[in-house]
Design brief:
Blueprint (H helix, E strand, L loop, with lengths): L2 H22 L11 H8 L3 H13 L3 E4 L3 E4 L4 H24 L3 H16 L7 H17 L3 H16 L9 H19 L2 H29 L4
Antiparallel strand pairs: 1-2
Helix pairs in contact: 1-3, 4-6, 4-7, 4-9, 5-6, 5-8, 6-7, 8-9
């Protein structure tokens, strides 16, 4: 690879990471049209690496393209959500098993640290940071299980669930239930009773799925799609 090719690759990687971070931070929201000029100015780079990055994000299904219209941030749909939550449940059941089998104090300290950060967040409305912390909580459990491929697959699923729906339509009451369930999951892992910890986690995942569906349906109703 010559110097020019290397520079293009580095610029594309930088653009990819920054655009994905903008999606994570809700600077680019689901359904929004992406304007090249604004991204070029925001990221301080030319159009080519941005297009390369958007093509990569399209392959990962975070954005979509329309002929003669450009790129848009992809929104999650009910049928896709159903599929992702089925996969999530399977992965998290295995994650709980692995975490308990490979339990260590340092790993639990990290899990409890994220739980504490979640408690410090506002409880009367959802924020993008709160959703990212929630995803991190579950990823820390997978990390303690020391199965790198499981961690990688769960990260992919959680990113698509958490980054591709509009947070303003999430029911705030879910936050109170989530707090209790996270604490129960921690206690379940500490007790090292796999069946009990799995049951708590399965209930938590079902509640999250229902809340996300409610948010999607509310957004659709506002747009008179139903």
């Amino acid at each position: 690879m010559n110097q020019m090719e290397n520079e293009i690759k580095n610029a594309t990687e930088k653009a990819y990471k920054q655009i994905k971070e903008m999606i994570a931070q809700y600077q680019l929201v689901p359904g929004q049209k992406i304007t090249y000029a604004q991204l070029c100015e925001k990221l301080g780079m030319s159009k080519n690496p941005i297009i390369n990055a958007l093509n990569r994000l399209e392959q990962e299904e975070f954005v979509r393209s329309e002929t003669n219209r450009g790129f848009f941030i992809r929104e999650i749909e009910i049928n896709e959500l159903e599929e992702l939550y089925k996969i999530r449940e399977v992965l998290e059941m295995l994650s709980i098993e692995e975490a308990i089998k490979n339990y260590d104090d340092e790993g639990m300290k990290e899990i409890e640290g994220i739980f504490k950060l979640l408690q410090d967040e506002q409880m009367n409305y959802f924020t993008r940071n709160r959703l990212l912390l929630d995803a991190t909580f579950h990823l820390k459990i997978a990390k303690m299980g020391k199965n790198k491929n499981l961690l990688k697959m769960l990260k992919y699923v959680l990113e698509h669930i958490y980054l591709r729906h509009k947070i303003e339509n999430m029911p705030p009451k879910r936050m109170i239930t989530t707090k209790k369930e996270h604490l129960e999951i921690i206690k379940g892992i500490k007790s090292k009773k796999i069946a009990k910890a799995k049951a708590i986690t399965r209930r938590h995942i079902l509640g999250a799925k229902i809340a996300t569906e409610e948010g999607i349906l509310l957004a659709a109703t506002k747009l008179n799609l139903f």
